[in-house]
């Protein structure tokens, strides 16, 4: 995966060293947290003018950290003003581009909070008009729902100020860009994620300035409400919003079945798509699903029930649609042995220096983090902030442990009365290790622990994939008749889904027309009949 390049046009803000270091830290952390991360840069991304990026907020601190790492340019993020009062953290988040927002519930003086917020929105709009970039979560808070919550008016109010100032000073027009944020499981370590930059929103003309203050407030209010409603609709479309997580799960599983069936019908080898490609497939599936629910629900009701039963059966045997589709006609013993050898080969590599270093440098703080989260969960901490707390405690525990273990190992190797020092000096070659400068050794070790952890995760990911493949071959060689039945059911479901989808104009088709701003995909789906 490659991170998006920063814009090079003269109108964009310069990126300071502190911001770059903080973003590098976020990128390193996100690359460890996710085993696969895709960032899709929309070709319609404007090359000039300020930008407000808007996204839904399903996963606490993970959302801003991932988007801060992913989005190009110097990015500002709104944060509650109380965070800026914390001595060290306040300076760090300000250097990272954060701007204070004064929430009523965080202040005893409601009128003062409103006044400071109005000033902040005006200043943010001014910054956007001069090429600044701002990340906003219009829902106002993180949540665990599968649907997008009601959007607040802050993004529209900032954009109104930005557009008005850009118009007065003849500056490039700023834009609002919705961001699709997708996780296979954001609260779980080593899952998959995708960031999709959508097309800029088409906004209505801003209200003209008039002398009548009351009339100005009314027209501005109507504009802000209209744009906020459009932002909410765009977030639902970009996030593949559904009423329940069960509906989202069915859409993603059905997408997997369609992907496999198309490969079988074309005679191609079944390969797992990237997560970004899976998001696009899920978008097509959702659009078709909503279209039939709206226009002909009776046509898909039996298929939905058949799909639910099939996926429930797969879940009961811990199998996936891919396992069913990829099964060879006659699973041979050689295939099973090949999977076993691949797993043993990776396992052998994991016994080397990398893994043992990763264990020493990362397992103790990882276990401490796990126990901390276990205790917090017992005390009823909300699932919506579980990932936030996990990352927050890890950011504290891991560096402290790395410093401690680096000092300890340095002393063990270089202290003259250490048994290890005495043992190494008994051999002329190993004695060179005892002559290393202690400061150099300390800093090398300090860098080595997180590096060995990342290298270990790559080996571990391959080990898990090979282990799953080994289990897959083992299951394939059992109960041939049962697997034939599963394949028959799945191919039937896949064939019906493809026939229904091919009868529609869906997102990604050559003749697909992108919805106007504020409209959902399914409203632009058309029947080919």
Strand content: 5-15%
Helix content: 55-70%
**For the report, how would you describe the main beta sheet?**
7 strands, mixed
Identify the CATH architecture of the largest domain: 3-Layer(aba) Sandwich
Query: What is the number of E strands?
Result: 9
The first-level CATH class name of the largest domain:
Alpha Beta
Q: End-to-end span in angstroms?
A: 41 Å
The tally of domains stands at 3
Shape label: flat
| Class from helix and strand fractions | alpha/beta
CATH level 3 topology of the largest domain: Glycerol-3-phosphate (1)-acyltransferase
- CATH superfamily name of the largest domain? Glycerol-3-phosphate (1)-acyltransferase
Question: Taking Cα atoms only, what radius of gyration do you get, to the nearest Å?
Answer: 27 Å
Give helix and strand order, one letter per element, not per position.
Answer: HEEHEHEHEHEEHHHHHHHHHHHEE
**Low-confidence residue ranges:** none
- On the 0 to 100 scale, the average pLDDT is 87
Number of DSSP helical runs = 16
């Amino acid at each position: 995966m490659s991170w998006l390049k920063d814009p090079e046009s003269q109108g964009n803000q310069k990126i300071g060293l502190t911001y770059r270091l903080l973003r590098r830290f976020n990128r390193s952390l996100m690359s460890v947290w996710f085993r696969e991360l895709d960032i899709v840069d929309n070709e319609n991304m404007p090359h000039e003018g300020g930008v407000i990026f808007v996204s839904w907020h399903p996963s606490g601190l993970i959302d801003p950290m991932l988007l801060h790492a992913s989005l190009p340019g110097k990015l500002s993020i709104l944060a509650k003003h109380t965070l800026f009062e914390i001595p060290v953290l306040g300076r760090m988040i300000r250097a990272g581009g954060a701007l204070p927002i004064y929430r009523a519930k965080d202040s005893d003086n409601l009128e003062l909070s409103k006044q400071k917020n109005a000033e902040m929105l005006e200043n943010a709009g001014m910054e956007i008009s001069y090429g600044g970039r701002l990340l906003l979560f219009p829902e106002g808070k993180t949540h665990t729902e599968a649907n997008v919550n009601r959007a607040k008016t802050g993004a529209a109010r900032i954009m109104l100020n930005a557009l008005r100032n850009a118009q007065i000073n003849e500056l490039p027009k700023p834009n609002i860009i919705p961001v699709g944020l997708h996780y296979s499981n954001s609260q779980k370590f080593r899952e998959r994620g995708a960031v999709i930059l959508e097309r800029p929103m088409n906004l209505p003309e801003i209200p003209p300035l008039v002398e009548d203050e009351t009339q100005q407030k009314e027209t501005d209010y109507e504009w802000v409400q209209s744009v906020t409603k459009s932002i909410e609709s765009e977030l639902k479309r970009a996030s593949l919003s559904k009423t329940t997580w069960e509906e989202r799960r069915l859409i993603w599983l059905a997408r997997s079945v369609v992907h496999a069936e198309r490969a079988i019908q074309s005679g191609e080898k079944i390969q797992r798509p990237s997560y970004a490609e899976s998001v696009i497939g899920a978008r097509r599936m959702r659009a078709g699903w909503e279209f039939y629910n709206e226009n002909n629900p009776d046509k898909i009701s039996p298929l939905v029930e058949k799909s639910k039963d099939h996926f429930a059966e797969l879940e009961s045997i811990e199998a996936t649609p891919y396992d069913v589709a990829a099964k060879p006609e006659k699973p041979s013993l050689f295939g099973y042995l090949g999977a076993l050898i691949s797993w043993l080969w990776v396992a052998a590599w994991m016994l080397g220096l990398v893994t043992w270093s990763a264990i020493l440098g990362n397992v103790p703080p990882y276990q401490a983090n796990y126990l901390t989260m276990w205790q917090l969960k017992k005390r009823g901490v909300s699932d919506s902030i579980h990932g936030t707390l996990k990352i927050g405690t890890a950011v504290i525990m891991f560096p402290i442990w790395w410093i401690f273990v680096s000092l300890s190992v340095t002393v063990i190797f270089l202290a003259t009365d250490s048994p290890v020092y005495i043992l190494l000096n008994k051999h002329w070659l190993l004695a060179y290790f005892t002559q290393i400068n202690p400061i150099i050794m300390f800093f090398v070790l300090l860098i080595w622990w997180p590096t060995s952890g990342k290298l270990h995760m790559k080996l571990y990911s391959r080990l898990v994939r090979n282990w799953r493949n080994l289990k897959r071959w083992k299951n394939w060689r059992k109960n041939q008749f049962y697997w034939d039945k599963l394949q028959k059911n799945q191919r039937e479901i896949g064939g019906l889904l493809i026939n229904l989808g091919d009868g529609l104009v869906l997102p990604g088709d050559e003749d697909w027309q992108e919805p106007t701003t504020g409209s959902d995909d399914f409203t632009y789906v058309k029947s080919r009949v």
